[in-house]
Design brief:
The complex is a heterodimer of chains A (about 220) and B (about 250). With about 220 residues, chain A is mainly α. Chain A contains 8 helices and no strands. In chain B, helix 5 links the parallel strand 1 and strand 2. The chains are: A mainly alpha (about 220), B alpha+beta (about 250).
Chain lengths: ~220, ~250
């Protein structure tokens, strides 16, 4: 396997630090942030899977498909929506969450099943761009709420840090996907060059994730009757 | 990469750099503006609450120190009047009773404005006294527990006292609870005030939430003034739980 791929994997695997910290603090932190820890966990699994696929390709010549990765993005989008619901970004009524999940599921099914089952094993962009845009909009909504309501420093607010990270990460993701969507014949070298930029930014995002998890407030000691 | 791709790549790199710079500037600007707004807002609420408490203190002192002795002097003089007939005697007794009632009412008002016991003996004794009186006269059973042995700064004690008053008022008026538990204790560098009732609770957009909106704002303002955190949990039919954490 080329050394370059190993280095890229190591950069991506840095998500293990926020995940480790999240698991270490899991019992103490506010339960509203649990989906975020799950997202970090899924992120690590996806990186390991991607690395395994690359390893298979270079060492056994096996060309794998994107089925698991396509399912992964569905799971992660549902978790993000749950996270924003827990933060009351789009209200507190459960039906709003269910509608959000239904929309995501419908777009995913359209992209990967209704438009052709063969798309399930390939890398497609419609769902990726839809859920990224949705999450970016929710992040902007949450940031605006925090600016108005937060009484403490925003730089130590885990929600603010997570939303900023999401904006950076998914905006780059959308750019990458749009390049992929509108230029399907683009060379691998070009695509890789863009991927490397995103990989560096991802490392920065993981650093913000780490700080965010560090500042997740502990569970509130509410009393019972 | 061919020359077209190289050009696209350069354009993308420049775009990334510009977007990154704009995002960074946006972030710094937000943080600075929010900090300024936060300080301004806190100072404004602080000034409002301090003015209100000072005014209450002045009125309570005037009632207690000026009006009280005057009424007592009037009563003393009425008691020394020699009534010539039975009708005048009854009139004097009635007047004396009215003055007693006025003095009693005035003491209650003065006490509500600023409880003497709070200033002299501290938050725990004052709350025990306040809750004991309420338990005697109300359908709501209030259980108060405190492990706090030390005195807190006066403004913190006054604000905590007002917060408890507001929570009890909400429980009686809006939540229809019959049990309210209140705990006050110190944990590391924080004073924790936690309450829970078994009332009807409220959801985000319910009528109860709207009705107790001003009360909630009051709780929030007083908590903000002390630099603390207010959290609450409520679901329809499952009561309301408040948690106020004040750094000391």
């Amino acid at each position: 396997m080329p050394r370059e791929n190993i280095i890229l994997f190591l950069w991506s695997a840095l998500i293990v630090f926020p995940l480790g910290l999240g698991l270490f603090r899991l019992k103490k932190i506010d339960e509203a942030f649990y989906p975020f820890i799950a997202i970090c966990g899924c992120g690590l699994l996806a990186e390991l899977l991607r690395f395994y696929q690359i390893w298979l390709y270079f060492n056994a010549g096996v060309q794998t498909n994107y089925v698991i990765y396509n399912i992964y993005i569905l799971v992660i989008s549902l978790l993000y929506l749950q996270l924003f619901f827990n933060w009351q970004t789009f209200g507190t009524q459960k039906w709003r969450l269910y509608i959000g999940w239904s929309i995501l599921l419908f777009v995913w099914l359209t992209d990967h099943v209704f438009l052709g089952v063969e798309r399930l094993i390939n890398m497609t962009s419609i769902f990726r761009m839809t859920y990224s845009s949705m999450i970016c909009l929710l992040s902007v909504q949450q940031i605006n709420r925090l600016i108005i309501n937060e009484k403490r420093s925003l730089l130590k607010n885990p929600r603010f840090l997570i939303c900023i990270s999401i904006l950076v990460f998914f905006l780059l993701y959308i750019i990458q996907e749009s390049v992929h969507l509108f230029n399907p014949d683009i060379s691998q070298v070009f695509f890789k060059a863009i991927f490397i930029i995103r990989s560096r930014m991802t490392t920065f995002v993981y650093l913000l994730f780490f700080l965010a998890i560090l500042w997740i407030p502990p569970k509130k000691p509410f009393i019972q009757l | 990469m061919d020359s077209t791709e190289k050009a696209i790549y350069s354009a993308l790199m420049i775009s990334f750099a510009i977007i990154g710079f704009i995002l960074l500037y946006f972030l710094i600007s937000i943080v600075r503006q929010q900090k300024r707004y936060r300080l301004l807002s806190k100072a404004k609420i602080n000034a409002e609450i301090t003015t209100m408490e000072n005014e209450r203190r002045r009125i309570a002192a005037d009632l207690h120190d000026d009006v009280g002795p005057l009424l007592s002097a009037i009563k003393l003089q009425i008691n020394h009047v020699d009534a010539t007939d039975e009708e005048q005697k009854i009139l004097l007794v009635k007047s004396s009773r009215y003055i007693d009632e006025v003095i009693q009412k005035m003491r209650e008002i003065s006490n509500e404005l600023l409880p003497n016991i709070l200033v002299r003996r501290g938050i725990v004794i004052a709350l025990e006294d306040f809750i004991r009186k309420l338990n005697e006269s109300n359908g709501l059973k209030i259980v108060f527990e405190s492990e706090l042995s030390e005195r807190l700064p006066e403004e913190v004690e006054i604000n905590l006292y007002r917060i408890v008053q507001e929570i009890i008022h909400n429980s009686i008026k809006h939540s229809k609870a019959n049990v309210l538990k209140i705990e006050l204790y110190k944990s590391l560098h924080k004073i924790i005030l936690a309450t829970a009732d078994n009332g009807i609770g409220f959801s985000e957009n319910s009528e109860q939430r709207k009705e107790s909106g001003l009360g909630l704002l009051n709780l929030q303002s007083r908590t903000d003034v002390m630099g603390g955190d207010l959290s609450f949990q409520s679901h329809k039919g499952k009561g309301v739980r408040y948690l106020i954490e004040i750094p000391i």
